Amino acid sequence: MAAASASVLHRCIVLPAGRHSASLIFLHGSGDSGQGLRQWIKQVLSQDLRFQHIKIIYPTAPPSVFLLLGGFSMGGCMAMHLAYRNHRDVAGVFALSSFLNKASAVYQALQKSDGVLPELFQCHGTADELVLHSWGEETNSMLKSLGVNTKFHSIPDIYHELSKIELEKLKSWILTKLPGKMEIQDE
């Protein structure tokens, strides 16, 4: 019998002592939480890990299946590396105006893998002159050939930038991967 339950993502933030000009995302280990990791660090250091200019974010998500990784340009590339090389248990990956080079370590890792891989959502502007649209398409084709379920959206007349259409498509995909209410199976 399934019971509906709302899944809550908690975050813990340590603000910089001065002007914020950089950020650090510090991920906890299995079975812990962002708050637990922050407390452990405070115990070891006898104070918060704090910097003059760096905001530290300690996110918490129940299991990793409620996490999405993604980003724009190099951020999307980093998300693909993290998910497909090290964290294949995440709910999905998105990459906006992003690509992997032809000899990417991601491809090498996926050639040696088996099992379920996180779905990839990609959008790319057809007029992108910095990260060519064809590079995004090649990345998508290669990942698809290696077993990744992919969704690729070409956005007409968009350069290396975000667009409303792209973000609306991303938002819709995010809600399919992380719906507001998660079902928990009783065993």
From TrEMBL:
<dbReference type="GO" id="GO:0052689">
    <property type="term" value="F:carboxylic ester hydrolase activity"/>
</dbReference>
<feature type="domain" description="Phospholipase/carboxylesterase/thioesterase">
    <location>
        <begin position="12"/>
        <end position="62"/>
    </location>
</feature>
<dbReference type="InterPro" id="IPR003140">
    <property type="entry name" value="PLipase/COase/thioEstase"/>
</dbReference>
<keyword id="KW-0378">Hydrolase</keyword>
<dbReference type="InterPro" id="IPR029058">
    <property type="entry name" value="AB_hydrolase_fold"/>
</dbReference>
<protein>
    <recommendedName>
        <fullName>palmitoyl-protein hydrolase</fullName>
        <ecNumber>3.1.2.22</ecNumber>
    </recommendedName>
</protein>
<dbReference type="GO" id="GO:0005737">
    <property type="term" value="C:cytoplasm"/>
</dbReference>
<dbReference type="Pfam" id="PF02230">
    <property type="entry name" value="Abhydrolase_2"/>
</dbReference>
<feature type="domain" description="Phospholipase/carboxylesterase/thioesterase">
    <location>
        <begin position="68"/>
        <end position="175"/>
    </location>
</feature>
<dbReference type="InterPro" id="IPR050565">
    <property type="entry name" value="LYPA1-2/EST-like"/>
</dbReference>
<comment type="similarity">
    <text>Belongs to the AB hydrolase superfamily. AB hydrolase 2 family.</text>
</comment>
<dbReference type="GO" id="GO:0008474">
    <property type="term" value="F:palmitoyl-(protein) hydrolase activity"/>
</dbReference>
